[in-house]
Structure formats: C-alpha cells, structure tokens
Amino acid sequence: MSDDIKVLLVDDQPIIRNGLKSVLDGSEGIKIIGEAIHGRDAYIQASQKRPDVILMDIRMPIMDGVEATRLIKKDFPEIKIIVLTTFDDDQYIIQAMNHGASGYLLKDIEVHRLKEAIKDSLDDHVVLPGLIARKMFAHLPQVDHHLKPDDFTSREKDIIACLIAGKSNQEIADEMYLSLGTVKNYVSTIYSKLDVTDRVNAIIQLRRIGF
C-alpha cells in the first residue's frame, strides 16, 4: 500500500467528488487520501496530507482552482496538480499551466485515461486532450529557432504530431504499434534535441519552430 499514488480530490460538488472517489480509490495503486471543497481547503489539506497528485476543479467559491494551484505549487512544488473541469476556457488553461499544473482534463474524460494521466503526471508527462492542446498553443507565435522540422526523423515527426494532439505515451504506442518503452525513448530523444525536460515546454518549442 505504501506504493499507492496518494490523490486529493478538490471540487465543490459532492456528486463529483463521490463519483471520482468511487472509480479511483484503491484501483490500480491509487488511493484517495482526502477531499476538499474549495481552493483554500485544498491548500490546507495539501500542507497536512502531502498528496502525490491533486485533481483540481477550477470554478469554486472562496478560492478558485487557478489560485489554489499557484499557492500549492509555490509552497509544495513536488505535488502534481491535474486540473479537472467542465470548462475548456483558454485563459484558465494558460493560467493553470503557467502556475505549474501538470495537466488539464475535461470531466467527461474516460476513466482509464484519467488513471493514465494521474500516473503520467508523476513522470512529469503532461497530457492534454487534443482540442485543449490546440487551443492552448494556437496563440503562440512562431519565431526563429536553431532547429527546423527537417532536423527530426520521419518517425520522430509522427511522435511529435501525437504529442501536439495531446496523446499520452500509451496512446501513441497503441496507435503506432510500438512498445511503450520505444515511445518513451523517442520522446526522450525529442526532448534532448529541444533541450527541454517536460511535455509542455516541448510542445511550445515545437510550435515555435513550425510544427
């Protein structure tokens, strides 16, 4: 049990918290260690219980999820925060990610993808639904960069297309008929070429060089 991923649920609606707890608690090494009803409550529980991952709603009374994310990541940077909301508002996405959120998912996500996202966040992988990924990065200007798209192999370009579409490593592996380890190796090579260590900055750089 000590290897379970400790998750804190943050949502002002009991029906949402209960639903998440029923599908996540105890499944595949995930343990729900607390529930918070607003951002301030989330900060207090984060400081006391030190979860590995927080599933954070955005629109809540007293303190919203964006501000809670900012405060928690400032004081407890090791905690991963996945924003889970019904809204795909561009400004919320950008603010939450800028404050250090590890992902931004809509509440209609399938359960298996949510579980994957929780596990991926611990490996510093950021998974965004394709629509949200496109909305988030559409505003980025394309600027001169020492790399060009042709500096990547054909297979790396296929992997890059999947990254920009917001697909997880497992989804890329399934789609391209590769092993998960092979996909991780390709992703690591892409990161190395871009001189980045996480998915958000990788996608930002890829967009800037013309992908």
Could you walk me through the main structural features you see in this protein, from its secondary elements to its overall organization?
- By secondary structure, the protein is of the alpha/beta class.
- It has two domains: 5-128, Response regulator (Rossmann fold); 140-208, Orthogonal Bundle (Arc Repressor Mutant, subunit A).
- Helix content is 50%, strand content 13%.
- It has helices at residues 14-24, 39-49, 65-75, 90-98, 111-122, 130-137, 154-164, 169-176, 180-194, 199-208; strands at 5-10, 30-36, 53-56, 80-85, 103-106.
- A five-stranded parallel sheet has the order 2-1-3-4-5, with helices on both faces.
- The longest helix has 15 residues, at 180-194.
SS elements, strand count: 5
Alpha-carbon distance between the termini?
43 Å
Strand order of the largest sheet: 2-1-3-4-5
Estimate the mean pLDDT confidence: 84
Structural class: alpha/beta
**Backbone CA Rg:** 17 Å
CATH superfamily membership of the largest domain: Response regulator
Order of helices and strands: EHEHEHEHEHHHHHH
Put simply, the count of helices is 10
Q: Give the fraction of residues assigned to helices.
A: 40-55%
